[in-house]
Amino acid sequence: MAKYWGKILAVLAPVVLVALPVAGLAAPVAWASSLGANLDTQQNSIETGLAPHEINVKTETTDTDTDIDTEDAVESDADDDAEYDTENDTEADTEYNTETDTEYDTESGADDSVSGGIFAMLGGSAGIAGLIMFLLWRQHNTIRRQLGAEKYVVPGSAHITYANQELVHSYVTSVKISKS
Amino acid sequence: MSDVQHKCPNCGAPINFDASSGNMKCDYCGSLIDVSSLSQTDESTSAWTEPPSTYLDQTTGQSLATFYCNSCGGEIVGSPDTVSTKCPWCNNNFVSTSQLIRTRVPDRMIPFAMTKEQALAAFKARMKRLWLLPSRFRDVKVDNIQGMYVPYWLYDADVLGQATYRGEKLRSWRSGNRRYTEHKIYRIERECQVSYLDIPVSGTSKITAAITEAIEPFDYSQSTDFSSGYLSGFVTDKYDIDSTDANSRALERMCYTTSGVMRQSVTGYSSVSETSCQVQPYYGELEYVFLPLWLMNVPWKGKNYNYAMNGQTGKFVGNFPVSWAKLWGGFFGIFLALLPIMGIFIFNYVIS
Hints:
The complex is a heterodimer.
Chain A: H1 2-48, E1 56-68, E2 90-103, H2 106-138, E3 159-176
Antiparallel strand pairs in A: 1-2, 1-3
Helix pairs in contact in A: 1-2
Chain B: E1 15-18, E2 23-26, E3 32-33, H1 38-45, E4 54-55, H2 56-59, E5 64-68, E6 75-78, E7 96-100, E8 104-105, E9 108-109, H3 116-128, E10 145-175, E11 178-202, H4 209-214, E12 235-236, H5 243-264, E13 271-300, E14 303-310, E15 316-318, H6 324-351
Parallel strand pairs in B: 9-13, 10-12
Antiparallel strand pairs in B: 1-2, 2-3, 4-8, 5-6, 5-7, 10-11, 10-13, 13-14, 14-15
């Protein structure tokens, strides 16, 4: 039975040691997003002078303009005779109408913040611990194949004999900066 | 003319005329080779130049003995008076010997510079640095340390590389309430030439390629002509991987490095992606050499752990067992120690 445990652990250990650092990185991100929602509620409360549970947020229209201006002025850095003449104008207007009624609950926001913090604490600790143990575990096997042959390049023999770069396409995009 | 078989300059596989492209095509690696360059290619790039083989009994009249292992089928070559009781591959006793009739002499060899005691010291020094090693493994008795001359093939070649990339340069600016980004797409071409000297590829299948490559590099400036005197006290192994079978690995490593040389020269772009890469080797010399390795085989809980040390430089590689109790104990120990620190940081500085 002991040897089966050894095999199970041998399979589980690499999985856990890789998964935990990933979880450790994901946890603060998840927590930050939950914290962001909570901060929005607090901000609304400050601006309106109402208690957070009294706020009834109505978002009328969100107008987003996205213009993609494409000016294809093709140049050639090389001495090539090739000449490109392309002109593309693309304009995209996107309009979003969103109406949302959202009632915020202060208590649930606070709970989210605390639970998010605990989740980040657990995930971050597990991630760092997993990373440290993974680095220690990796030192046990130093048998690795070589990737290339850099050590066998004759000194001074590696030359770039031809280099060319040619501009083949160019375009400009623009995005409206929202005033916040 | 139909009986002439051309070979791919990239991988050595047979190539045939491809009517759709009008070129010779390799069905194995997909390379297209210009027909007009074929005669020139075949003369200069078809194969490595190998010096004529010589044999020990031809030059000195001496013969060597071969030791066979009935357990794993391994065989090693040594002088007839070699006292070797255990197989370096599987740790079992050798049970039969025979006289070797034709022993190929290597073109050159690197003699041992590290002793058996130094190999054992390197093994123990490495163990001291491993925190997750089972405590009982530290007391393990290593009684099977074998100095071995491992057969290698050394490849020389000049390699021409040709690659194209797609690069993008971004320039961003703000005007009024808009942010503009200019995208410039470039087609980038690079050609390079790189010379390689003495790329080693193991000629034996008894030791894994990972071990024979992990103990690299060797200092070939200290190589000498073969002398049977260097073999005394050590064993060697006949090559069982032919030079033509081993050359694909040498080419693989050359291709990797050559494409890296070209890629490193492409700078100043926000993003670069490779669209094509071709590598053309011009074969140089091929040599058969003996390189020194100390091999250890430690049985532990029903499993053999293999270790190797470069017999010239002392570089030590191996796979040590892991104590699962230490691994999980360490993990939870660090986890629990970090919890209050993370808690203080998150709840005092981030949330508040």
